[in-house]
Amino acid sequence: MSNNRAEAWEAIGDGEARGGVLIVADHASAHVPPDIDLGIPAEIMTRHVAIDIGVAPLAKALCARMGWEAILGGVSRLVCDFNREEDAPGLIPLSSDGIDIAANHLDAEAREVRLARFFRPYHGAVAAAIARRRPALIVSLHSFTPRLETRPEERRPWEIGILYNQDERAARIAIPLLKAAGIATGDNKPYSGRLLNATMNRHAEGAGIPYLGIEVRQDLIGEEAGVTVWADRLAPVIGATWDRFAQKGPVSVRLQA
């Protein structure tokens, strides 16, 4: 399995084995470049506000097992949140789940520098991977916390959430498969892909490519053993969903804006 790395992204695999699946993980890293000081305690960088816990090892396990390809985000979401539109205020977050990031109060010039350094190269890498080997299915891989610090009373009991915006094609295949496997599955939960789906809106829905937005509860994949279990459970579901589209050949249905 090959590996390429740049400051803003890491590419895993060559996409040859089951060539139609590309995994995209926007929040796979907690890395903060040494020349950027966020002004927050180091301990916060191990928490969900900084990284989607477990996503990088899970993506790598799926790629190793199935021969799929992945693009992983190379910096913390607190440096640059790749799952936002370029003009979104939260792209360089000023706060996250009750934690203030005062150092992210940037002027227009400094914001542009961060966009040019991280955001555009990351999305350029995703676009290049899609153009190089147009996938029959894109998998957007994230993890979610069992509860938010700012809303501790709000239970998030699902093991997996499947998120989507306008294009529900892959979701409608995967959700019954997950439930049949006894997996507690949220349909556009723990939050709605109709509200937050920027990367898939751009690279999947914008190009008419079916996609699965998968959220895994982070306590299930925080350790190596859990990653192995969930790679075992998710691989056949993703594979079966991929099969439905791959058998029909390349799929391109451009949705209305």
Describe this structure in words.
The protein is an alpha/beta fold and 257 residues long. It has one domain: Zn-dependent exopeptidases (Aminopeptidase), CATH 3.40.630.40. It contains 5 helices and 10 strands, in the order βββαβββαββαβαβα. It has helices spanning 55-66, 108-132, 169-180, 198-203, 224-246, and strands at residues 3-5, 9-12, 21-25, 69-73, 95-96, 99-100, 137-144, 160-163, 185-187, 211-217. The chain has an 8-stranded mixed β-sheet with strand order 1-2-4-3-7-10-8-9, with helices on both faces. A hairpin with a 2-residue loop joins strand 5 and strand 6 (99-100). Helix 1 packs across helix 5. The radius of gyration is 17 Å and the shape is globular. Residues 250-257 have low confidence and may be disordered.
Task: Tell me what portion of residues adopts beta-strand conformation.
Answer: 15-25%
Mean of pLDDT: 91
The SS-based structural class is alpha/beta
**Oligomeric status of the shown chains?**
single chain
Secondary-structure element order, as H and E?
A: EEEHEEEHEEHEHEH
Please report the total strand number as a whole number. Answer: 10
Question: What is the top-level CATH class?
Answer: Alpha Beta
**CATH homologous superfamily title:** Zn-dependent exopeptidases
Name the poorly predicted regions.
250-257
CATH topology: Aminopeptidase
Please indicate the count of domains.
1
The dominant shape is: globular
Strands of the biggest beta sheet: in what spatial order? 1-2-4-3-7-10-8-9
Helix coverage percent of residues? Answer: 25-40%
User: How far is the first residue's CA from the last residue's CA?
Assistant: 37 Å
The major pleated sheet works out as: 8 strands, mixed
Number of helices: 5
Q: What's the Cα radius of gyration? A: 17 Å
Which architecture per CATH?
Answer: 3-Layer(aba) Sandwich
